[in-house]
Each structure stands twice: as C-alpha cells, then as structure tokens.
Amino acid sequence: MTTPGIAAQKSIDIVVPAFNEEACIRTFYERTARAIDALPYAFRILFVDDGSTDRTAQECFALAASDPRVGLLRFSRNFGHQAALTAGLDAADADAVITLDADLQHPPEKLPDFIAAWEQGAEIVSGVRARAEGASLWKRSTSTLFYRLLNAISPFKITADSPDFRLFDRKVVNAIRRLREQSRFLRGIYSWVGFREVQLPYTQAERAAGRTHYSNIDMLVFALRAVLSFSHAPLRFATYLGLCVSALAFGFGMYAIVMNVVFHQVIRGWTSIAVLVSFFSGVQLLTLGVLGEYLGQVLEESKRRPLYLLADTHLPALVGPAREPKSSLPPRD
Ligand code: UDP
Ligand code: MG
Fold first, then answer.
1. Do 186 and 57 share a structural domain?
2. In this structure, which ligand is nearest to the CA of 102?
3. 24 and 61 share a domain?
4. Residues whose Cβ atom is located within 5 A of ion ligand 2
5. Is residue 37 situated within a structural domain?
6. Which of 38, 67, 172, 222 gets the highest tally of CB atoms within 10 A of its CB?
7. What is the residue range of 297's domain?
8. 326 closest CA partner among 90, 40, 9, 7
C-alpha cells in the first residue's frame, strides 16, 4: 500500500456515460460522492451526456454548480455507449480513470477496492460480474454463448461477464487513445492493449431507474461488430466453405461425366439440378455477405469521421495536484 502522503498527490477521473438517465444521475452522484469523499485523491466525476433527450444534461449542470469536481461533456447527438466511454477517456487527465454506468448497476461503493488494486500495481482493474441481480436467463445465456464464440475465433482473450466497470492507469488510457477505429468494441480494445490486469468480482445490481437502452437487435449488432473487429475467422470460414463446396462439385461433375461417357447413362432428373443450383447460390450469397460485412467496415474506417461531436464541454480543473485544466479534447498520441 502507498502511504497517504504519496496518495494525496494522485488524481482520479471517474467517467460516466449517460443516455436519458435523468432519474439516476442524482442518486448516482450521491452514492459516488459518499464512496470517494474520504479517499485522499483529487477526483473529478465526468458525465458524458450521449445526446439525451430528457433532463440528464440539466441534472449534470446542476450538480456541477454545487460541486467543483463534477464535469460534463455533452454530445451533439446520440453516438452510443462506446463513443461516450471514448470521449471520457479522451478528456480525462488524471493518474487513473474509472469508467462505470450511470444507472447504478455498477456499485460505486466498490471504487475504493478498485483504487486499492491499482495502488498495489494493477494497470487495469476489471470488474467481473460475480452475480447479476435481475438479469434474465436469456440475457445471461446469450452473453455466455457470445463470449465463448468470440474467444474461440479471436486471438485476443476477452473476459466474459466483464463489462465497462473498470479502472485504467494513465499509461493504459494513453494507449487506448491511440486506437481510433470507428467500429468500436472497447472490451476487445482493452484486451488488445495488454497491460497488467487484475479482476475484481462485484454483484451487478438492477437498474436504479428507467430501462436498458439495448434491445436484442442492438445486442446482435454489437456482437457482429465485435466479431468483425477482432476476428477474421468468418472470412477464413468463407474460403474453407468455398473449397469444400468446390471439391464436392468436382466429385459430382466427375461422376456425371463418367456415367455419361463410360456407362452411356445420363443422370436424369430436374430435382438434382434444382437442389445443386439452390445450394451453390446459397453458398455464394453467404460468402458474398461475409465479404460485404468486412468491406462495409473498410468503408467506414476510410471515411475517418470523428468518433463523436461535442456540443458542450465543462471540464473543471483537477483539484489537488497543480495541473492545468485541458483546453481542447482531441486525442493525444
Ligand atoms: N448509454 C450511453 N449511450 C447509449 C446507450 C447507453 O451512454 O446509446 C449509457 C447508459 O446511460 C448507461 C450505460 O451506457 O449508463 C449502459 O447502458 P444500459 O444500462 O442501457 O445497458 P445495459 O446495462 O442494459 O447493458
Ligand atoms: Mg445498465
């Protein structure tokens, strides 16, 4: 453990993506403030309002007016959870950054444990869901299946049940900032950058208020993005499938020729032709679809659009250690 004298020099930014969370913000702030108030660090709580259409931004500004540690980045529209986390990591300027959800599913009371693990040498501290209160069997089983599949086809080990409740040391934040890919799957990026990771179990609570922003279709799109960003296995699968089907077609062709030339027997029947044509069309469309998905990714990346746009920025100075407040946000390499 570090001595309090040394710890007092350190700073921590807490990044909180929020999309239509007006009902959660205040309770989130109160519980977080209670958890960190006694700790000897300079804190900032940076809310990222991801284009909310409710009073989330007003709630954050009200908190900022009463607590100089509270900051807000407001997006010009909804860019998504991954973009909101990215903006928070870009704006952060502390020795460590903690990310957690505004809906209180990630208990802020765990923050001292995250910080203690960091002080003991961890460069990434990952919250791992030991139990998820109120999570449906469907959500749990699809999530387990997804991570099994992803880990089977991706060279990077991505921990199941480890969402975005994490602490990053400054050097990890600097590394993550260098990855500007459009198709963002941050859990893969966290694994890609490496560094020394410690996992901390936590019990995921039910949402404090409101409802999840992710439908089954959103989850499917998220899963697809993860696979496309962190595995080329579907492309390879398309190649192998093409090879196998070509071999089958060659065999069948030889059989048809031999039957005709040697035995003077023409294979009769419309059925076999219809089956073969449909089968090959299906395989071709499937492989074209796989190619198309990857091509779409290339197109998105080549546009090099910004990952998010800010409409308002309120970044208080890190109270404690003498450090200039940041004036601009674009990522630093
Ligand atoms: N969120 C966001 N942008 C979005 C969707 C969600 O910033 O487009 C935030 C949301 O406010 C919450 C966190 O991301 O703090 C996780 O979202 P949610 O609770 O809806 O997802 P779940 O926990 O159900 O997976
Ligand atoms: Mg949630």
1. yes
2. 1
3. yes
4. 101, 103, 105
5. yes
6. 172
7. 233-303
8. 90
